[in-house]
Amino acid sequence: MRAYIIVFLGLLLVGVPECVTAEEINFTILHTSDEHSSLLPAPLSEYLPGKTSPAVGGVARLATLVKQVREQKKNEPVLLLSSGDFSGGTPFAWLALKGQSAEIELMQKIGYAATVAGNHEFDYGPAVLADYFLRHQRSFATPQIVSSNLVVPTGHRFDQVKINRHLILSLAGGLKIGILGLMGKAAHRLSPAAAPLDFSDQHTAARREIAALKDAGADVIVALTHAGYYEDVALGESVEGIHLILGGHDHITLDPPKLAGSSILMHSGSYLQTLGQLDLAFDRGTGKLRLRNHETQFPFLRRLDSGVAEDPEIAAIVDRCFKELNQLVAGFTDGAFDDMHTAVARSDFALLKHQTLCETTIGDFIADAIRLETEKVVGQRVDFAMHANGIIRGGINPSTIAASAGEITLFDLVGTCGLGAGADGEPGYPLVSFYLTGAEILNLLEVATLLPILWNDVYFLQFSGLRYRYDPERAVWFWLPFINKPLPAYRSILQVERFTGNGPQHGNEFVPVTIGDTALYHVATTHYMASYLPMVGKKLPRLNLVLKDRFGRPVELNQTIVKLEGREFKLWEAAARYICSFEKGGGDLPVVPPCYRSLNDRITVADGPSLWLQPVIVVCIVAAVVSVLFWWRRRKARRK
Question: What is the phi-psi region of residue 29: left when phi exceeds 0, alpha when psi lies from -120 to 50, beta otherwise?
Fold first, then answer.
């Protein structure tokens, strides 16, 4: 607690001169990140326009709060900035595939000055993103896109987009704000669809742009980063000259902001649940920046709940976008789903994504949906299904409002799993199905253990059709020095069992899967998830997985895409069809079965024998054998 107070006081005092001078200039920066196409408050089932309700967020509320702050601070400059991932998340992101730029259009109307591109901006590939930006830039100059480490191949369509390596924004009073933008390593790793675009080392790019901004006369240097907290801390500690780091990517909030080296570091949350507000003072005499929220009495985070009224102009644009989204979904599903606001099911409990690096109830639900709905489409039993936590955008929270208690809207359901697009240019990751041997399933589970150790919870895999016990302490022998890479031990999996029952995975109908199992098993997942499997084999040949057809013949990934009536079958569609298949209850709505109320022990962490026990036993046996041989030869020599 004492250390926390010291850091907080140090942050408030950072850059404060020995005496207050007339050179000090006050200004305010408003900040959001990871907005993820959150045009409406969430969950939609709890949103009552113009009334008090539990739903949080929405761009119409954001517009109102930004106007209020500008009015409250009409005698000083106010700058509104975003740290990226403004698209990709809710189904509104799909409108980009149909020639619209909804998110950035609204950002312009609300008054954003600049943003950096996050990894989810590239979900539909660089060509779609280029068109998205170009449509907007033909009519509007803001928000400006800044990306200091983006590398665009010569002749690529993205060359036509105006991307700033850095910006200088001149504020009232002559203050010059220099802005650079960075994509982090972890975020880049999650954007394979960005290729052939690439991102250079962020620290090298930052030093280059800081020098350029100083030469151009920038007073205050701000880094808009989409990199995550730990990479932001490393940036502040390693790169001199950044006054303020406004970060995003890992959906955290910092209240109060923290220090990273000599830089003030702020993360303002995600999904437009909160607006970050930094009241700042810059001293021209010392070149120092300080926070003054403690003086102005404004909080660092402003919650966008129903206490904030909706701006009518912005609300009208959102309403138009919602109607266009409904038309898109109706056309894609041949009218099976035509209103995203429709309640598709009822539940008296939430399906939560509440913890990291473990099985979750929403994970169980989506994995079962992949397995069982793929089974219906292809007409053959699917043994196993899997998907990564990064594909799950959140949990399912039924309405708590009396008039709609327990209802789950199609919009909220699809929002949990509606990322990406397929080769067909239609929204959602397509499902794939292929065959692996039992031995390869064990290798796959070793991969499932290694991925989150290397790259965190985003890569933690959820499963259907099996249950297994594993010991993460047995996954690697040790981390190799200098290169900071693990030496895999391939010994983390303790027990694997295949579910032999029908329907949702529940009960105790299981048989073992063993190391020597050469039988072929049918596996379903998303195209996105399956695209990572060959990469593992290249880096770790022992864990190589060969996708096969049901006759055991190797197949290419694109040959495994599941088709429904000639079109790609999407993850979000599988989830929607699955929840609509449940038995109906009161109100003539399907009811989520109680097996999803709690975990099913599909993934269990257990303590196995020490990883070093076997090597120690082997060494002891070898030592004993060597000792016996030495003794025997010595005794023989004495007899002679």
Answer: beta
Q: How many domains does the chain fold into?
A: 2
Residue 110 belongs to some domain of the structure: yes
- How many C-alpha atoms does 468 have within 13 Å on its Cβ side? 27
Residue 233 and residue 91 share a domain: yes
The length of the chain in residues reads: 640
CA distances to 127, 571, 573 from 430, rounded to whole Å, are: 19, 6, 9
Q: What is the 3-state secondary structure (H, E, C) of 226-281?
A: ECCHHHHHHHHHHCCCCCEEEECCCCCECCCCEEECCEEEEEECCCCCEEEEEEEE
Mind listing the pLDDT tens digit for each residue in 362-413? 999 999 999 999 999 999 999 999 999 999 999 999 999 998 999 999 999 9
CA distance 293 to 277: 8
Rg (C-alpha) for the chain, rounded Å, is 27
Residue 518 located in a structural domain = yes
Does residue 379 sit in the same domain as residue 455? yes
> What tens digit of pLDDT does each residue of 547-600 get?
999 999 999 999 999 999 999 999 999 999 999 999 998 778 999 999 999 999
Q: Where are the beta strands (DSSP E) in 431-587?
A: 431-437, 461-464, 466-470, 476-480, 485-488, 493-499, 510-512, 520-526, 563-564, 567-568
CATH number of the domain within which 268 lies: 3.60.21.10
Tell me: the pLDDT tens digits for 271-304? 999 999 999 999 999 999 999 999 999 999 999 9
Model pLDDT for residues 195-221, shown as the tens digit of each residue: 999 999 999 999 999 999 999 999 999
CA distance 17 to 308: 37
Mapping DSSP onto H, E and C, the string for 497-535 reads EEECCCCCCCCCCEEECCCCCCCEEEEEEEHHHHCCHHH
What is the DSSP-derived secondary structure letter of residue 320? Answer: H
Q: Which two tokens stand for residue 295?
A: 């003086």
Confirm if 387 and 401 have CB atoms less than 8 A apart: no
Q: How many helices and strands, by DSSP H and E, does the chain display? A: 16, 30
Domain extent, residue 422, equals 351-605
630 falls within a domain? no
Q: How far is CA 106 from the centre of its chain?
A: 22
Whole-angstrom distance, CA of residue 401 vs CA of residue 50: 15
pLDDT at residue 617 in the model: 66
270, 380: one domain: no
Read off the CATH number of the domain in which 425 is found.
3.90.780.10
Other CB atoms within 10 Å distance of the CB of residue 404: 17
Q: How far apart are CA 544 and CA 563, in angstroms?
A: 27
Q: Which residue has the tokens 């055991």?
A: 552
Rounded distance between C-alpha atoms, residue 437 and residue 599, angstroms = 27
| Residue in 434, 436, 441 with CA at minimum distance from that of residue 558 | 434
Q: Name 220's Cβ contacts closer than 8 Å, sequence gap at least 6.
A: 175, 176, 177, 178, 243, 244, 280, 282, 289
- Backbone phi, then psi, for 567, in 5-degree steps? -120, 165
**370 and 444 inside one domain:** yes
β-strand pairing of 220-226 with 244-247: parallel
466: in domain: yes
Q: How many whole angstroms separate alpha carbon 387 and alpha carbon 216?
A: 48
